[in-house]
Amino acid sequence: MRVFFDGNTAHVSGPIEAVEGLCGNPTDQSQNTTLNDEKNIEDGCDIQHNDTVDGTINCNLSTERCDLLKQPPFTACHNHIDPEPYVDACKDTLCKYPAVDGLNCQFMEAYAKSCSLKDNITLDDWRSTVNCSAVPQASCLDQYCSDHEFCGEKLGERSCLCRALFACKYKPTNALGEPTVCTENSATISLAGCLLQDKGIDYSVLHLNDPNCKGHMDNQTHMLTFSFDSSNTCGTEVSMNNSQILSKNTITVKNSSENGVITRHDQIQIDFSCLYTKPDIKSVAFRIKDRCVEGG
After folding, report:
1. Within a domain: residue 166?
2. Residue 207, in any domain of the structure
3. CA-CA distance, 275 to 243, in Å (whole number)?
4. In terms of pLDDT, which residue wins out, 103 or 130?
5. Do 273 and 209 share a structural domain?
6. Residue 232 to residues 182, 189, 239: CA-CA distances in angstroms?
7. How far is CA 136 from the centre of its chain?
8. Over the chain, what is the mean pLDDT?
9. What is the pLDDT of residues 110-130, one digit of tens each?
10. For residue 252, what are the domain limits?
11. Domain tally for the chain?
């Protein structure tokens, strides 16, 4: 059994006898054991999430892309390795999912590597022919992502993107995180780093009304938290209407100018506020009776 993995593409090859193992012998059905024979197992996913159809994907273009495996220079390997399984897998993936993480090149990479490993066939200049980078890079080996994220590529950059099950509760309302948490003297709001990344927002340039009040990014959860309180108001605006007190602040970004270079960012304004009810002031009226006593 031979296993090849370069951080991006995995290739397993060997004679059928080499795959004998815990589940049995592929050449003798009577020796095969399945998991169902041994124990009953339950689905590991508490909630199953089905992705909606991505209307931005043009399946015809994806099919044309995948069919490049049927053309030169890949034809040099067709007599040795059937390209159809690679083409089918390519179409099934690219017609359902965006071509992130270099997916539009990974199937070509896998086929070319299979040809090289099995029969030492080198497909000359295939990368330039199908417009793939000359040097494939291992994906996300040094990238840490939280439990609700996965490492992927978007707009040419690798980053932590939201898992669908996590993002689905925010996207219907176009929210970027959790609701504001209010206490008597403070307010806190947490935004998801992957949701900001999905919108192309650089969290490091965000701040409250006071530019010195920036958010804290948790290195484990990748949640960005902003807060203000009575001792550090961060430019909070306070207004009063009868017995109600409204404390309001805004997460925003300001265009800056350093060393004569003007840096502009897209307009971002995320308002969050807390409403308090001022306790009634109760008054007590009382009357004091005084009596003078004369001594004799």
Report:
1. no
2. yes
3. 10
4. 130
5. yes
6. 15, 15, 17
7. 23
8. 81
9. 999 899 888 788 888 899 999
10. 181-277
11. 2
Q: Which amino acid is present at 96?
A: K
Token pair of 27 as six digits: 């050449």
Reported confidence tier of residue 136, pLDDT bands at 50, 70, 90: low
Whether 120 and 129 have beta carbons less than 8 Å apart is answered as no
Determine the longest span between alpha carbons in the chain, in angstroms: 136
Domain boundary among 129, 159, 193: 129
Q: Which has the closest alpha carbon to 178: 113, 223, 234?
A: 223
Handedness of CA 80, 83, 84, 89 (dihedral sign): positive
> Within a domain: residue 43?
no
Query: What CA–CA distance (Å, rounded) separates 130 from 295?
Result: 119
Fill in the amino acid letter for 64: E
Q: How many helices (H) does the chain have, and how many strands (E)?
A: 7, 13
Query: How is residue 62 written in tokens?
Result: 């994806």
Q: What's the pTM value of the predicted model, to 2 decimals? A: 0.60
pLDDT digits (tens, 9 = 90+) for 278-295: 766 655 565 655 555 555
CA distances from 215 to 192, 211, 212, 234, 253 (A): 12, 10, 10, 11, 12
* Rounded-to-integer distance, Cα 234 and Cα 207, Å: 9
Chain centre to alpha carbon of residue 88? 27
Question: Is residue 286 situated within a structural domain?
Answer: no
Strands 186-192 and 223-229: antiparallel
Burial readout 160-181 (b: 16 or more C-beta within 10 A, e: otherwise): bbbbeebbeebeeeeebbeebe
Token pair of 134 as six digits = 């000359």
Are 27 and 16 contacting, i.e. CB atoms less than 8 angstroms apart? yes
Q: Between the CA of residue 245 and those of 38, 47, 131, 185, 239, what are the distances in Å?
A: 64, 41, 60, 11, 6
List the Cα angle 193/199/204 in 5-degree steps: 50
